[in-house]
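> tool_call: predict_assembly(chains=two)
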Amino acid sequence: MGIDYTVDELICVCISRQVEDGEALAQGLATPLVMAGYLLAKLTHAPNVVFGSAIGNTICADGAPLSISRIEDIWLGRAIALTSFPEAVCDVLFGLQPKEFFRPGQIDPYGNFNNIFMGGSYERPHLRLPGCGGIADVTTYHSRVYFYVPRHSRAVFVEKLDFLSGLGHGHRLPDYPGPRYLVSNLGQFDFKGEGGRMRLVSYHPGVPVEKIQKKTGFPLEIAPDLHETPPPTAEEVRLLREEIDPLGIRELETLSGARRRRKLREIIKKEQ
Amino acid sequence: MINKVTTLTEAVKLVREGDTLALGGMTLYRRPVAFVRELIRQGTGDLTLLAFTASFASDLLVGAGLVSRVRSCYFGMEAFGLAPMFTKLATAGEVKVIEETEASIAFGLRATLAGVGFMPGQGWLETDLLKVRPDVRLVDDPYSDRRYVAFPAIKPDVAVIHARLADPYGNAVLGGNLAVDWELTMSSDRVIITAERVVDKLEERADIVGLRVTAVVEAPGGAKPTSCYPDYPLDSAEILRYVETCAGGGFAEYLTEFTNNSD
């Protein structure tokens, strides 16, 4: 007897299962799926993790339910320590190397990625993206680079990037091991293929491997122990819905345009 | 110490055409929105906008046509999606983006703080950022065979920072979310503090030291609809209204309403 869950919940659960107890976890801007996954880990197998948040550059031992309007309360209100943003960048990140899940605008077979623009040329792009934050900085040395892709498509998984703003495998930097893991709405991947190529490790329940290949813009390697992603447990789903994210903020990352704005309206109404 | 209290109208005159203008705060938190409103009214243009992370206030400046160049590592609306006017104008090539990352801004400001021409860092190596920023060079480590990126010094002409509290000399309390504001204060030629309240004497320790502050302006609610933690939270409904209005092609009307607003 299966339990009901949504694909955003499955992504959160996969993220949670990548978390090890006692480690430091970094959260970037506007990444509620990641935060929900981290909180799920904290409430299940990893009670001793600490959170580093870009909101207020805080380090916190305690989490709180996801919020949009009161996100500073969550982080600044619970901070063990805080720094300025330049201090976090120059003085903290290298020393702590917190695990971080990045969301690529485009990603190539080796885990190189792009958050600058899509399509056209740099001077005249089809779409300018918000920018790469600190990705181009930390992907030169960071030992724990992870990915999540809420909407797996050939627009995201491309043979050749329009712009390289985050390093994957195949570079010449001796201290950077490259990305380790990727979860999308279709499956889980590692980078243990030929020369650091992306490999399908597990397909989410009900998703045929052919579909994953079809939605990926380059030939996928398949891990020898390919299996089905273990689905969320009833308790994991309950924690996500009742304790971690009762407003459903995590779903925003799977939506765009008018549907995203409609969901935002619902969330903000409930929050007020 | 010198009393620097002035009006918003006078403080905005410290910004000149062509300046590099740095906005304090982060994305949707403690941004100098009242200042931006008055700046749009006065119409000082051809600005280089430096915002570590840029969002609502920066998007209004870009949409109003006052910004020629953007220096930022993230220009977006966080949970609310893309920044409508930046995305539109940067996609059309009508505003130039000078690519930055967290490290290029942080190390660049620190170089100015230290009085040197650059700070070395590991960021950007092997990325395309070096191709679109040919002014950013590599440097040999004199102690090993490594090469690093020499992030060039950044020196803003004007920085504007919204604080919870300030005294007449420019000492200011930020309320926890420190952003880039100490570094902006110490690196910029002119510094303007707008504050929820200006008091004769601060009762708590200041986050910003007034020695480098040029002007102090009392601006209650001056960060709205962005937050001023812990005094007021982000006005999410208003940010959503902005995004929705722009999605319907209504930026010009929003801007008119925004600049006519007396807050």
